[in-house]
Design goal:
With 175 residues, the chain is mostly helical. It has two domains: 1-75, Ankyrin repeat-containing domain (Serine Threonine Protein Phosphatase 5, Tetratricopeptide repeat); 77-175, Ankyrin repeat-containing domain (Serine Threonine Protein Phosphatase 5, Tetratricopeptide repeat, Alpha Horseshoe), CATH 1.25.40. It has helices at residues 18-27, 30-38, 53-59, 63-71, 86-93, 96-103, 119-125, 132-137, 152-159, 162-170. Helix 5 packs antiparallel against helix 6 (96-103) and helix 9 packs antiparallel against helix 10. The longest helix has 10 residues, at 18-27. It holds the Pfam family Ank_2. Keywords: ANK repeat, Repeat. This is Ankyrin repeat domain-containing protein.
Length: 175
């Protein structure tokens, strides 16, 4: 992928370079993202699934690009059409260093997706127990109930996941 050729001080029409923007985010190509931003490309553009460049860069494990997008003003709290945030995505993927970076933002750690699940629920469901203390330190509610009225503890209990049950109890989950 090459950097789009833009006129000096030229402005891009919103979404003219959507394909290049989202591909660059997936590939961690800050040079392309930066060129488009300087030409006026809207940083919070989202694709048809609601993924922003920051969500894609995080999900595809490009921590430097995530940092640069946040420094450029990208919203780390944005969610896709399913309500999943970049934090939820990297927890799912197991990219815990990026998760810890995202925890340093102003985002609500108890934000929920469309199913009412939080980042802590994702961590429990996908075995990311080493992230529990960080999530709790940033205010995660260990007894949050999802849209069905289940806590993360109740969900992993129903799955027979004793390791997750024990880890959740250690961070204060009670039901």
């Amino acid at each position: 992928m090459s950097v789009p050729q833009l006129e000096t001080n030229g402005r891009v029409e919103a979404h003219q370079y959507d394909s290049e923007w989202f591909n660059a985010a997936r590939e961690g190509r800050w040079d392309i993202l930066d060129a488009l931003l300087k030409a006026g490309y809207p940083i919070e553009s989202a694709n048809s699934s609601g993924y922003t460049a920051l969500i894609l860069a995080a999900y595809d494990n490009h921590p430097d690009t995530v940092d640069k997008l946040m420094a450029a003003g990208a919203n780390a709290c944005a969610a896709d059409h399913n309500g999943n945030t970049a934090l939820m995505g990297v927890i799912y993927k197991g990219q815990l260093d990026i998760a810890r970076t995202l925890l340093q933002t102003h985002c609500d750690v108890n934000a929920t997706n469309n199913a009412g699940e939080t980042a802590l629920a994702f961590a429990a469901l996908f075995g990311r127990f080493s992230l529990f203390d960080d999530l709790i330190a940033h205010g995660a509610d260990p007894d949050h109930e999802d849209a069905r009225g289940n806590t993360a503890l109740a969900t992993v209990r129903a799955q027979g996941n004793t390791a997750a049950m024990e880890a959740l109890r250690k961070v204060g989950a009670t039901h």
